[in-house]
Amino acid sequence: MSDEFILQTHGLTKEFAGFVAVRDVDLKVRRGSIHALIGPNGAGKTTCFNLLTKFLTPTTGQILYKGQDITALQPAAVARLGLVRSFQISAVFPHLTALENVRVALQRQHGNSFDFWRSKSVLDVYNHRAEELLHDVGLSEFAKTPAVEMPYGRKRALEIATTLALDPDMMLLDEPMAGMGHEDIDKISALIKRISAKYTILMVEHNLSVVAHLSDIITVLTRGQVLAEGNYAELSKDQRVKEAYLGAGHE
């Protein structure tokens, strides 16, 4: 495997009781890139994400991450290798503050899972790094705000901060703009662009204007198979891609 690519799949296939959700998908994600996975409804994008992060086991095929075969690994083992997923629905503790949420993620990264019962002095060792991460995602002013009281877009930024706390090399973002208004979309887009200087990003995203603005390379799925791949300018002229979307509706 070339060092140029941090993640590759070969013949990735997933069947559910005779239904093939993903068929022979070959992906190559270049280090340091923003790579988007798009396609009409039912194209297999979420199934691909679940396979890559090992929430599903492939029926056939191989997944390589940083040159290592991770096809048979468990989700926690994959995360420890630096391949971390951020979910479509905001996954933060609603009644903890932004700082406390990031601190919990930092504890997990250091092998001290969710140590709520430990003394304040022990937990405070994580504060400086937690404050740095909140600053990185533009949430310093929300450090003491319970997550439940934060605007929706800021909760999504907090989720990215908790993902970064796990010290990933590569982030999988599952619909990062879901449910957002224009202002929040602009903020999260700028955040993703900024963090891409340090991390490789693979994202599923419905908003094609966001995909056009952020992505270096785009893989189009339809009916569980790769239909086309390229940059946005190339794919926007591809008649097969136009027909796939016009036939099934944009996601």
Task: Describe this protein with a few key phrases.
251 residues; alpha/beta; 4-stranded antiparallel beta sheet; 35% helix
Overview of this structure, please?
The chain has ten helices and ten strands. With 251 residues, the protein is α/β, with parallel strands linked by helices. It folds into two domains: 1-82 and 169-251, 3-Layer(aba) Sandwich (Rossmann fold); 91-167, no CATH class. Strand 4 (60-65) and strand 5 form a beta hairpin. The mean pLDDT is 89.
Find the CATH superfamily of the largest domain.
P-loop containing nucleotide triphosphate hydrolases
Number of domains: 2
Instruction: Count the DSSP helices.
Output: 10
> What is the helix/strand order?
EEEHEEHEHHHHEHEHEEHH
The CATH topology name of the largest domain reads Rossmann fold
- Major sheet size, sense and barrel closure: 6 strands, mixed
Radius of gyration over all CA atoms, rounded: 19 Å
Q: What is the C-level CATH assignment of the largest domain?
A: Alpha Beta
* 3D shape: globular
Strand line-up of the largest beta sheet: 6-7-8-3-9-10
Global mean pLDDT = 89
Distance between the termini: 33 Å
Helix vs. strand class: alpha/beta
